[in-house]
Amino acid sequence: MKLFSVTFLALLSASNAFTLPFSNGAATSIHRGGMQSSNSALASTIEKADTDVDLESFLNEGDLEGNFPMRAKFEKTLREAQISITKAIEEIDGEATFQEDSWQRPTGGGGKSRVLSEGKVFEKAGVNLSVVYGTMSREALRAATEKGDEIVKDMAPDEKVPFFACGLSSVMHPRNPFCPTMHFNYRYFETDGGAWWFGGGTDITPSYVNEDDMKHFHGTYKEICDKHDPNYYKEFKAWADRYFVIQHRNETRGFGGIFFDDQNEKDPEDIFAFSEECLNSVVKAYGPIIEKHKDDEFTQKQKEWQLMRRGRYVEFNLVYDRGTIFGLKTGGRIESILMSLPETARWEYDHVPEPGSPEAEFIDVCKNPRDWV
Amino acid sequence: MKLFSVTFLALLSASNAFTLPFSNGAATSIHRGGMQSSNSALASTIEKADTDVDLESFLNEGDLEGNFPMRAKFEKTLREAQISITKAIEEIDGEATFQEDSWQRPTGGGGKSRVLSEGKVFEKAGVNLSVVYGTMSREALRAATEKGDEIVKDMAPDEKVPFFACGLSSVMHPRNPFCPTMHFNYRYFETDGGAWWFGGGTDITPSYVNEDDMKHFHGTYKEICDKHDPNYYKEFKAWADRYFVIQHRNETRGFGGIFFDDQNEKDPEDIFAFSEECLNSVVKAYGPIIEKHKDDEFTQKQKEWQLMRRGRYVEFNLVYDRGTIFGLKTGGRIESILMSLPETARWEYDHVPEPGSPEAEFIDVCKNPRDWV
């Protein structure tokens, strides 16, 4: 069971995994005990949807299955990060605020999306929390992974797989073509027979090459990695370069970062500490790059180039991101899954940048990932 | 063999199938006997790419396999339609012209794309010819269809499936939000053991409901259908409504048209005649709607709504269109496959049209397909 559970959920979890198993819990409107104290600082800036279901935790407290303390601790970390990251992004934007939508999953758990639209600095930014558990069908498994058929071949047609998953995932699309898009996702899984693992990563997708920015972004994560394990950065940087590939273009989506999955070889407390530090360093790694470039001058042609790169982002997310595809095909909350798509994207037929241009240099990096630090 | 061949290739052929098996034959530059006479009228308006391989036919004339006369006749019909349709679209546009790229497929056949970009009336319009033959691998089959595993389970790992396919496929995206997008695809297949069939269809994707336009479009195809078979329109209209569905949104992509596949129960000459008439009526069905609305006034909000519908078009093509997905995953000529994507598309988080608005009426039709004639 371990093998397929790890394979299945790990694949699922690549990007938007945590919004996947949600049905749109718009029907229920349970408000239990108000907001957490750390939440109230931001409360005034968050518009509540009618469909709001704001629980302090999506865990079922009466049910102490699995490693309950870790489940609860990880959820708390994710909730706090969702608040602190969205607050920092609102400050950078200076105008727009996040809209919050919460929901419950009838068969276990729930989620909370925060999405900022039409900001001054950000065209769109979303941070999704989800905490889901229950069982997955054979059909869901089959849709979820390339190896689905192999994995499910010994399962009975109606066999279900118990699982627990919680994570925070995010994509931020700034307006200025010199401000990169950023994505992160940190998650904790448990499944049948006591199996557990952590996964996650933060990666960056500029439209132009800026070595200093990349040194800062990769350098921030290298420093964190090195504190926890001397092999982490090398291994997880390479993993990101392998995963975020638009296969039909033979290009990476962006300039990578770190990506890891199936981490269960160490003490869970150690991997938790690493994941928590990665998550809590998102603003430190990304924020200064946006502050630096948010008012850069640009031409219409540079904006169009950025929108073509946004088109590539859409291609990756809709064609290759297993979490997205699985979610779309199995009834996840669509608006939470697709908040990762940009406000606008562009496709020009057979566009080839002029040799020697900054756009050609960009493509070269997408075809030959660089070491930045 | 019949069963899986029909299932496999029919699924492939849904939209962009004919560009799929092409590798980018940019290397070869064979120019054999100049252009056809019917082509030369348009020659001055078509920019030739360096990679051009302009053959009079992509068939191997020395090889009289299968129903060679039908292969040749269908290819000729497609080539003539590609010229006449692109000429008519250029005339409607009044400014932009089609760029032509031809290529050969090393393992059999070739193709020719004509793409118009940044026109006055059309933001993007493409018409792709392809004539391909050879064999398909088990892996290609598995990727091509939902039933892939079932279909290939009795095949040896290295077994190949002989096939021949030719078709013309097209998507046109006009600028004005009151001008609908249009897609068509007409194709002829042969495979192992003498199996053959025709498939095709023309469908329309507006951003607003205009009953007169839909009566004209559907009425044109109903008239053709009725001339050939009293059951065709009812059956093929329903088929389009079933196929062009964005499943995760529970919405149709547009307002349908006709869609048919696996047609081999009649004399091939009869089905050929029907397909030919459908293909040659594309301009009659679509052109007047564009002429009528190309100068309509519109607001920025209406333009944004159109771009959000373009986003839905992207979702359908990248997530559900089997031809596109198979092509992307198995190394087709990317620019020909993805010419179906719009120049620009838009995603707004959780956009819900105001009740009673024209946009809400549009969504209602996407959720409840109407009978227009």
Automatic annotation (TrEMBL), chains A, B:
This is coproporphyrinogen oxidase. It is an enzyme of class 1 (oxidoreductase). Keywords: Heme biosynthesis, Oxidoreductase, Porphyrin biosynthesis, Signal. Residues 1-17 form the signal peptide. Homodimer. One of its GO terms (molecular function) is coproporphyrinogen oxidase activity. Pathway: Porphyrin-containing compound metabolism; protoporphyrin-IX biosynthesis; protoporphyrinogen-IX from coproporphyrinogen-III (O2 route): step 1/1.
